[in-house]
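ugh ok fine here u go
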Amino acid sequence: MTTHPVTRIEVTADPAGPRTELCTGALAPRRLRAEGHVVRIALVGATALLLAGDQVRVEVVVTGSVHVEIVETAGTVAYDMRGAAARWDVSVSLRDGASLSWAGEPFVVSAGAEVDRALDLDLDAGCWAVVREQIVLGRTGEVGGTLRLHSRATLAGEVLLVEDLDLSPQLRSGWATVHGRRCLVTVTSYGRRLPESPTTLQAEGQASVTRTFGDELHRLVVPQIDGAGGILRPAAASSLT
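structure:
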């Protein structure tokens, strides 16, 4: 088992400009140029990922009237783990009017991989987040391994959205998952709703989930996130595989 140091992003609003503290773990956060009360941060791989036994953790804490935009510079491949497994945990805390957009790049689950990915968000009232995930189940010609997705979000101390999605090979052919397709793109909004669309599910509270799936990622229309406004714009995806 390889427990990597925690990747930590901490941003605090300040009259002189947002203050940031960045700690490198399995991923290295790098601040990019942005204007006003927007902090743009790229996540760059600091080691080979994702291998058997890897334990990856990312923590994001944002406080005050500031928007953090996280971008991934490349996709990630979970390789054949030969009977072992790996974890990828993300924890997000938004306080005192903060907001976040996270534009995830393709996460490829190779044949033989077994991965648990968990996302835990804790939002104060008035805070919001938009998160995009792109899942590819197997490289070209592969069935792909096992991926279990766990999401939990609270808003002002109340449960906002909880979802567990098991994408094991024997379970993902049903109509309630991906109909046997290998590519799944999800955008979830926490703390406010996405615009109505045929692919969008509106939660009971201030949350929305929109999903599209297919056999080839580059043929799907992947929503692009306008970080400062959280607005979705369609654009063609690129293929990692």
